[in-house]
Amino acid sequence: MDTDQNRAVTRTFSLRGLTSSPFERGRTRQTDDVSGFNMPAPLEIIGAHKAFRSPEGATVTALDNVSVKLAQAEFMTLLGPSGCGKTTLLRTISGFETLDAGDILIDGKEVTNQPAFRRPVNTVFQRYALFDHMNVARNVGYALEIAGKSKRDIQARVGEMLELVGLEGLGQRNISQLSGGQQQRVALARALAAKPKLLLLDEPLSALDKNLRQKMQQELKTLQRELGIGFIFVTHDQEEALTMSDRIAVLANGKIQQLGAPDALYTKPANLFTADFLGESNLLPVAIERGVATLADGQNFPCSNESAKGTLLLRPEVLRRTAPSEPSLTVQGTVVASYYQGKDCLVDFESPSLGALKANLREFKSLPERGETVSFYASTSDLHVINEVSS
User: Fold this and answer.
1) Which of 324, 331, 329 is nearest to 349 (CA)?
2) Per-residue pLDDT tens digits for 11-67
3) Which residue has the higher pLDDT, 63 or 207?
4) Are 234 and 81 in contact (CB under 8 A)?
5) What is the distance between the alpha carbons of residues 251 and 66, in angstroms, rounded to a whole number?
6) Can you give the pTM of this predicted structure?
7) In whole angstroms, what is the distance from residue 226 CA to residue 228 CA?
8) Is 389 exposed, middle or buried (0-12, 13-18, 19+ CB in 10 A)?
9) How far apart are CA 244 and CA 239, in angstroms?
10) What are the structural domains, with CATH classification, of the chain?
11) Side-chain half-sphere CA neighbours of 226 within 13 A
């Protein structure tokens, strides 16, 4: 990679020349309340339903009565496995797919039946969809050309966008001369050139290597905060969603399983799907009676759940080798395998009464050996019981 390319890829976004309100510059994480300042929601989806016919003739429901509302200047991620409905939902927002039922409102205005080119949104695609026969500047300014803007206005806006994404001076380069990270930035600049009210991103980082992907995660979040517009980001990568989002909508089988802040979804998932999909988990059945949950090995701990049965979520990282001073559970077992992961050590072990478990140790002197008997401790304050029974 030459010097110019390296400079463009490794620098952070330059945000000179942009303005934002004090609210946008100091914005904190949004809550589920989007009614602040008496402003209409940037995006509201009400009862969205979409089904497709499979090649075999079966009906496949992609969206099943999905409702969601975006807060002002919010970064929301649609997270889920392949086929969960996240990309279909994004395409219905953009206008590339039509709903069978339901409504879509942008800034309080119904756009459900509007074609894509009339909606105030733009999309950054997974494969960027750049025009190989055009240079960088023409790619960025293409939508402005179609809109009939003057050459002077186009040139000024293109220059602003290239500076915004750290590609100033590269406007005359061919797309084939750019790295993957630079192409992603061109796609971003093109999507933002027309000043959309919402930016939709369909797994735009999936083609990048790990280091560049992590850098772009941080830069995208910085960019979104400074611009002060809503971002809807689609991914199946849990780490990506946790890093970038104000809120995450976890989808499965065409439905939103849970919607909330990343830390809430991770530490207190509402159901087994969210608990199992979002990060590593140990799921253990418990019996609940009179405010006490009891594990299969007889250990118990306080529990406010009202159901008679449930499932304890025991994240691998809450297990420690040293007993805490506060009340805790003790889990003993035999090491099956251990894996060094740099700052962490992942231990697979088998408990006689609780089955196969995982522990993620942040502090360790040496790797536990296969066959070694180990004891782990989990503070009761780190426990979470789900009102579903694990199979």
Assistant:
1) 331
2) 334 333 333 332 233 333 334 444 445 788 999 999 999 999 988 989 999 999 999
3) 63
4) no
5) 10
6) 0.83
7) 5
8) middle
9) 9
10) 3-267 (3.40.50.300), 280-386 (2.40.50.140)
11) 17
